[in-house]
Amino acid sequence: MINVHFVILGAVVGLCGSALYIRDTVRGLTHPNRVSWFLWGAAPMLAFAVEVRSGVGLRSLMTFTVGLGPLLVVAASFLNRNAVWRVTRLDVACGALSVAGTVVWLVSRQGLVALAASIAADALAGVPTLVKSWRAPQTESASAYLGALANSTITLLTVTTATAAIVAFPAYITLIAGVEVVLVAGRLGPRVRHLRQADAGVGGGGRAP
Q1: Any idea what the Cα angle at residue 54 is, between residues 53 and 57, rounded to 5°?
Q2: What is the pLDDT of residues 124-136, one digit of tens each?
Q3: pLDDT tens string 157-184
Q4: What residues does each domain of the chain span?
Q5: Which of 33, 64, 96, 158 is packed most tightly, with the most Cβ within 10 A?
Q6: CA dist list (Å): 126 to 2, 57, 98, 194
Q7: How far apart are CA 45 and CA 51, in angstroms?
């Protein structure tokens, strides 16, 4: 395990990734889904509050920066009206479910229940962006996800005594950020679709008319 103060380095790396994403948003190169990014900001802030109350300590800095970055992305999206992804029914449905998870957090009196609700809310908020990253990865930027992945991984490496309050949110962020990096940087969706089309073409060409 590494020293807990490395969490500060992870937070800086995470914010640098968000800063690059914000730059691409202002330039119109990236089109953030405001539903996902707003709720991605709100849910971690709730998780941060739970972690503070649970005595997580310096490691909660990761959760705070993971929430701050998306809120700054949402603010930046208003600087370029052409940099916004169109909101669909899926976005609205996932957003409503995410808000429901947030309500559970607000009414819960148990820290672990609240933490689970905040993670569920964050995951539901991310569904529209995950779908978007699969279908149109060129409208995304991997920088924020790489920063979040580094941030959460460093935080997990500082853990000496694992408890749900300490590791749950960093572990979740590692998972979701890792998936986004593969989808966006790896252009997984287009690659899979291209392979399917190629296979269909080979199969179609081999059949007799």
Answers
A1: 90
A2: 888 999 999 999 9
A3: 999 988 887 898 899 999 999 999 999 9
A4: 6-204
A5: 33
A6: 30, 26, 9, 25
A7: 10
Measure the CA–CA gap between 97 and 10, rounded to whole angstroms. 30
Give CA–CA dist 172/156, Å, rounded. 11
H helices within 110-208, ranges in order? 111-135, 143-157, 164-185, 188-205
The DSSP string of 48-77 is: HHHHHHTT-GGGHHHHHHHHHHHHHHHHHH
d(CA 44, CA 65): 9
CA distances from 184 to 131, 135, 140, 208 (A): 11, 10, 6, 39
| The two three-digit tokens of residue 45, written as one number | 């802030």
How far is it, in rounded angstroms, from Cα 142 to Cα 146? 6
**pTM of structure:** 0.85
Nearby residues of 27 by Cβ (< 8 Å), 6 or more positions away: 80, 83
